[in-house]
Amino acid sequence: MRTRGAGTMRVAAIDCGTNSLRLLMADFEGNAMHELSRQMRIVRLGQGVDATGKFAEDALQRTFTVCDEYAAACKENGVERIRFVATSASRDASNREVFVEGVRQRLGVAPEVISGDEEAGLSFAGATRELLGHEPAPYLVVDIGGGSTEFVVGSDAPEFARSINIGCVRMTERHHLAEKPSQQMIDAAILDIDASIAVAQQAVPLGEAHSFVAVAGSATTVAAMALQLPHYDADAIHLTRLSLQQVRAVSEAFLSMSSAERAALPFMHPGRVDVIPAGALILRRVMERAGLQQVLISEHDILDGIAWSLAREMIP
User: Fold this and answer.
1) Where are the domains of the chain?
2) Phi/psi at 109 (nearest 5 deg)?
3) How crowded is residue 50: how many other Cβ atoms within 10 Å of its Cβ?
4) Are domains 8-114 and 131-298 of this chain identical in fold?
5) How far is it, in rounded angstroms, from Cα 103 to Cα 86?
6) What is the DSSP letter of 216?
């Protein structure tokens, strides 16, 4: 365990999305963050929510099991403050109180079911903090999640933001993209994705940004594929630049592969095997629709934004 100095605060940020449940433990000393641990488990909390409007019992149990694991890690590492943020699926589920109470019992804090705009702002803060002064502003940050995708544009703070209900899990379930979809299925998904991007464009000037940053698991897995990594390597992926041609090629490859072929890729997380064709397609369509020729892939995202939000509260 890292030794803490005087004036250091140890926090835990937890991001519960439609597909994954992630934990970041970090120390803050003044204006500096020192990462202790970053963990991710695929729990698929949003399984079936798009169709049924509520959480499935097995999805809740998978999520609570990981909450127990994260609670133990926080206790072992002497975490002083936890913030648990829940996003798209938790906004949509009619039985979310069961989820809220289950998390509270295990972690001692209630999950904050935040709005899409707040989600976008936290993603922006996490993704851009290290880019200030190094990459040209304004920034467009796109966070492709399981249930929703966030679009936010700004320089040192968000200026325009919009969350739309297209995500890799939602699109996979809605358009059956997991197993070598037909061209008709792909075309239907593209129409759906494009309609939502058009809604986002009404609120967010996508084409005016000087730097395009994509965050979260779909984008980082696209980068791993483009780089042909022998294993998942966050350091190799972080701040990788991909061209539209590379993203398009990866998207087409994922859509044409079987689940078994994707599962055999050495960098592929088992929980992303079925949803990565949809995630890559969303990234591709964002770039094509907005006329973006290059994307910067970041491993820093809403988790980092949540941690920084805790630091602002705790350190004068």
Assistant:
1) 8-114, 131-298
2) -135, 150
3) 20
4) yes
5) 11
6) S
Tokens for 89, please give them. Answer: 């699926």
pLDDT (0 to 100) of residue 315: 52
Pick among 1.10.3720.10, 3.30.390.10, 3.40.30.10, 3.30.420.40: CATH of 8-114: 3.30.420.40
| Separation of alpha carbons 311 and 126, rounded Å | 13
Q: Strand ranges (DSSP E) for 48-170?
A: 81-86, 112-113, 139-144, 149-154, 158-164
Rounded to 10 deg, the angle between the 244-256 and 276-290 helix axes is 150
Closest by CA to 271, choosing from 57, 15, 45, 100, is 45
CB 295 within 8 A of CB 212: yes
pTM of model > 0.90 = no
* Length of the chain, in residues: 316
What is the Cα–Cα distance from 284 to 273, expressed in whole angstroms?
A: 18
pLDDT for 173 equals 92
Q: Which fold has domain 131-298?
A: Nucleotidyltransferase; domain 5 (3.30.420)
CA 178, 181, 184: angle at the middle one, nearest 5? 140
In the chain, which stretches have pLDDT less than 50?
A: 316
Which of these, 144, 143, 137, lies nearest to 159 by C-alpha position?
137
CA 217 to chain centre: 6
